[in-house]
Specification:
The chain has 504 residues and is an all-beta fold. 0% of the residues lie in helices and 44% in strands. The protein is elongated.
Length: 504
């Protein structure tokens, strides 16, 4: 085992709003008592920082010392012949496990992390530079330096910069809290957003008039950007340069910078579990020391508790937890109200520590969700307007051990909202066909079924078909006919999808 002398630093700084430049001042943040969220009932740490090295080594850094660490070291690729160096690490939210990713896209899983695939056997246009886990740990993304994005498991593809000419290579990825989008960051501080990842106003360094490192211009980066990290609610992000400079956008908080640490190349960043602070890590001082800088509520008294202290460069850092992740105990229910009245959605979840909650709304039938400002309690209440009818609402619960998302609940504010679509039917000649549909609304809507015999070009009302279920005995002449239902109340009419009848 290769052992290194540890050097702990904590340097503060202020970020000047003008052009994003930093006015620096030194300071120390000693930590003698761990915050309650970082300990179990016996006072032992429940959180550690995993450091991945280019040669495959992994080290667990534990707040408060090593005497009672609960954080598990699950192994590494140290000592194994690798085709390409390791470039990133991602941990399983709420579980003891992690993945390592190599520059050829090879993925190695440890502990509870499940292997879902890799690009190790593919010819890539550019090397992989990072890996990110989905919120439920059921998949992961790989990102390449040309902005190409590769998805595995339940990770969804929302777009990439592959095939687009970039000013500088992509260096990292940050995922939104619900896994519905991601940001890609370039070495020059350019940011590209996909899915529900919002690009905030002036949300990149070029947009602020800051040019790439080495340009020699008045407002230029001293070192290329190395990392990007999203805020807890997905409303912002921060970028960190190799010199320790920190740049915040949207609602991401600034807690300090390591830009005064001359001669240190900062290699990895890990935000704290509540994103109230962050650590910077470096192994650049000739491989003779591990350098740490802590800011905000990040404890400075980390100690190596497992793994291999290795002189090869640190290529990634991620959190590892031992608490229990959120488990949904109450799902929100559909709400039917008249416009102008109050709609209330409720949800609950268990977990240790107690999870926080953020409500989201979708106005595009669940394709994308947007966080609702200040909606951070178990109950969401608001006065409705007609235009909000059809919105879907869900809550995301988060703690140090992971994240859980409720099912979506539908708001019907007046106009009927379809809750059940009719399904295609295949029956034999002379047997019974049954179509069913449902909708909610206030006032309660009435229903009328319609039939089309010309592939939906024209529709005729079915006589007496005014219940949510349409049942009749079929004949061969009805083969290929289509049926839909119209729900109507005083606020309007909503029509279901069409269902096809096949008579054999």
């Amino acid at each position: 085992m290769k052992m290194l002398t540890r050097l702990t630093k904590s340097v503060g700084a202020l970020l000047c709003a003008l052009a994003g430049l930093m006015a620096l001042s030194a300071g120390f943040h000693p930590t003698t008592t761990l915050p309650a969220r970082l300990t179990d009932a016996s006072g032992c740490p429940t959180q550690g920082v995993l450091l991945a090295h280019a040669d495959g080594a992994v080290t667990v850094e534990t707040p408060g010392g090593i005497s009672c660490s609960n954080v598990t070291y699950d192994g590494s690729m140290y000592g194994t012949a690798l085709n390409k160096p390791i470039v990133g690490i991602a941990s399983v939210p709420g579980g003891n496990g992690y993945w390592l990713a190599a520059s050829d896209g090879g993925v190695f899983s440890f502990g509870s992390a499940v292997y879902h695939g890799s690009t190790g056997n593919l010819k890539l246009n550019a090397p992989i530079v990072g890996i990110a886990s989905t919120p439920d740990g059921g998949g992961y993304w790989l990102v390449a330096s040309d902005g190409g994005v590769f998805t595995f498991g339940d990770a969804r593809y929302y777009g990439s910069m592959g095939g687009v000419k970039l000013n500088k290579p992509i260096v990292g990825m940050a995922v939104t809290p619900d896994g519905g989008g991601y940001w890609l960051a370039g070495a020059d501080g350019g940011v590209f957003s996909f899915g529900d990842a919002g690009f905030v106003a002036n949300g990149s360094l070029p947009a602020l008039g800051i040019t790439p490192a080495g340009s020699g211009l008045p407002h230029s980066l001293n070192a290329p950007i190395r990392f990007i990290s999203g805020s807890p609610d997905g409303g912002g992000y921060r970028m960190i340069g190799g010199d320790g400079g920190v740049f915040d956008f949207g609602d991401a908080q600034y807690y300090g910078s390591a830009a005064l640490t001359v001669g240190t190349e900062w290699e990895a960043l890990a935000p704290t579990d509540d994103n109230g602070g962050y650590w910077l890590f470096s192994n650049s001082a000739g491989g003779t020391s591990v350098t740490l800088a802590s800011y905000g509520d990040a404890p400075s008294n980390l100690a190596s508790s497992a793994g291999i202290l290795d002189p090869s460069p640190i290529v990634g850092a991620t959190l590892e937890f031992t608490g229990s992740g959120p488990a949904i105990t109450t799902q929100p229910a559909d709400v039917v109200v008249t416009p102008g009245s109050v709609a209330t959605f409720s949800a609950a979840a268990s977990g240790t520590p107690a999870p926080s909650v953020q409500w989201y709304v979708s106005i595009d039938h669940g394709s994308t969700y947007t966080p609702i400002t200040n909606a951070t309690s178990d109950t969401l209440s608001f006065t409705t307007v007609q235009s909000e009818s059809g919105g879907l609402y869900r809550a995301v619960f988060t703690n140090a051990s992971g994240q859980a998302t409720t099912t979506a609940a539908l708001l019907s504010a007046g106009t009927p909202e379809i809750t059940g679509q009719p399904a295609d039917q295949s029956v034999t000649n002379g047997s019974t066909a049954t179509f069913s549909a449902s909708a909610i609304g206030d006032p309660t809507p009435t229903v009328q079924w319609y039939v089309s015999t010309d592939s939906g070009s024209t529709w005729s009302a079915v006589s007496g078909a005014t219940s949510t279920t349409l049942t009749f005995t079929t004949t061969s002449s009805e083969n290929g006919t289509e049926y839909d239902a119209e729900f109507t109340n005083s606020y309007g009419t909503t029509t279901t999808d069409a269902a096809t009848l096949t008579v054999m």
